[in-house]
């Protein structure tokens, strides 16, 4: 957690002393309750091969045959994947595929239906 700037002089060099924040430049002291912490919401934006934005619960279709790691089977082009869940990372779609089970896919290999 980063400490807030001083509300009086906007100094970034504040420090916490017990229940109080203290500014070494102007000697202003204020309590933790007085600090309004801005809530940062990070929105995950995932797009399919055509540039359409995907959301949790969408149905997508696989656009090319994909080898399944750890298996001799292949996920065929046109396979429908229902109720996807978006996750952060390289493989940004988490889903369950009938006949294959739980799997992670890259959004660049699917299109929104």
From TrEMBL:
<protein>
    <recommendedName>
        <fullName>Alkylphosphonate utilization protein</fullName>
    </recommendedName>
</protein>
<feature type="domain" description="Protein YjdM C-terminal">
    <location>
        <begin position="46"/>
        <end position="112"/>
    </location>
</feature>
<dbReference type="InterPro" id="IPR004624">
    <property type="entry name" value="YjdM"/>
</dbReference>
<comment type="similarity">
    <text>Belongs to the YjdM family.</text>
</comment>
<dbReference type="InterPro" id="IPR013987">
    <property type="entry name" value="YjdM_N"/>
</dbReference>
<feature type="domain" description="Protein YjdM N-terminal">
    <location>
        <begin position="2"/>
        <end position="31"/>
    </location>
</feature>
<dbReference type="Pfam" id="PF08274">
    <property type="entry name" value="Zn_Ribbon_YjdM"/>
</dbReference>
<dbReference type="Pfam" id="PF03831">
    <property type="entry name" value="YjdM"/>
</dbReference>
<dbReference type="InterPro" id="IPR013988">
    <property type="entry name" value="YjdM_C"/>
</dbReference>
């Amino acid at each position: 957690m980063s400490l807030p700037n001083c509300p009086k002089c906007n100094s970034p060099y504040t420090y916490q002393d017990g229940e109080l924040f203290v500014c070494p430049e102007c000697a202003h002291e204020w309590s933790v309750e007085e600090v309004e912490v801005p809530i940062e919401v990070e929105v995950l934006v995932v797009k399919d091969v055509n540039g359409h934005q995907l959301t949790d619960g969408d149905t997508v279709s696989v656009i090319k045959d994909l080898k399944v790691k750890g298996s001799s089977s292949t996920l065929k082009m046109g396979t429908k994947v229902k109720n996807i869940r978006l996750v952060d990372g390289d493989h940004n779609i988490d889903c369950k595929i009938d006949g294959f089970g739980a799997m992670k896919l890259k959004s660049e290999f699917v299109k929104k239906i």
